[in-house]
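User: Okay, second chain of the day. Same drill as before: sequence in, structure tokens out.
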Amino acid sequence: MNAVVPIHALDAGCSQAPVLRERGQREVFCGLTGIIWLHRKIQDAFFLVVGSRTCAHLIQSAAGVMIFAEPRFATAIIDERDLAGLADCNDELDRVVTRLLQRRPDIRLLFLVGSCPSEVIKLDLSRAAQRLSARFNPGVRVLNYSGSGIETTFTQGEDACLAALVPSLPDSDPAAPPELMVVGALADVVEDQFARLFAQMGVGPVRFFPPRQATALPPVGPNTRFLLAQPFLADTAVALEARGARRLAAPFPLGVEGTTAWLRAAASAFGVNQSRFDQVTTPARERATAALARQRSLLAGRSVFFFPDSQLEIPLGRFLARELGMSLTEVGTPYLHRQHMAEELALLPAGTMLSEGQDVERQLDRCRAAAPDIVVCGLGLANPLEGEGMTTKWAIELVFTPIQGYEQAADLAELFARPLVRRARLSPRTPGLEALSCN
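Assistant: Same drill. Structure tokens below.
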């Protein structure tokens, strides 16, 4: 069984810990990447990037879509004629959208996604979305958001997308009983697991945002209580609160401890007693705890260094330290939202070094000096660090993989064990790792 510090022990941790704030050269992935998981989630939506051929290559390679597939994303290429002012970009965009909707009549929601090139030439996609939405309503709603990587990290693409959707959510009935909204794109299997647990506890009605169908947008209003399933949805939370919804403060549902606290926040808000809560969650908690025990034997005592990448770093650090016994050398995050992270910060081991933003050269120096057992970083840093002899984990894999909830806790732990196992097989004399296997 795992030795976990009680969730209510909030008098320690890093709530008041100093944070190293850096504003230098950054190593980040593009916000367009969010399309990869969003287009799979909202099954009748289409994402049209207005950008360059580089944008198209990025999404195509990140999604791994074969040339004969019919994905629900594409790129309207800004070429030399557009940049030179020889073509009217709005006329060209209208033509592309018209042709797209004629070819794909299943589309009910179309996102015009801004990119670095479209923002550089000041193309007003907001006005274009209004014009096209008026033209194609009621069959198709057209919205826009920015996926530019100029000033953001890649997970903020989802935040911008959901924030753009919030004004389209219908008003809830103010006289209706409270409803729960789970905010953040989750894999369907994870969403189904949470839906079952909430139903067994008697919490509800429960709605998920984004929904699987754009025609099933959840209502929002003063009777809406929402849980953030992802830690990078600051703008979406602000937009929901402006509509009258109230956020339920909780850690994020990573690992046994985080999932339990996250579910308990909803249970408490909806009047579920402790006995009922334990009856519903105990079987899954015990399964997950037993599954984590083996991964703990591989990871306990090992050190981990987080470069800022996805905004998942603080919840992941809490999980690795408290449930798997790892030591946190540094936990870097692109942006620290203290209100949304309050519960997570309180659970981090006291003395954890926290950094916000990035000066990549300085952080590389600290990483080399610390010589951690595993480094969590973006793709641009992983290969060079591997070349220096370090063991790395791609941060983006932690976003693409279902990791929330009880049933995924051991899978999440295995994502960190695998690089160490790989390193042990390549260097069989590594102390304590000779016989490791994730199978």
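Confidence is low (pLDDT under 50) at residues 1-10, 432-439.

User: Thanks, on to the next one.
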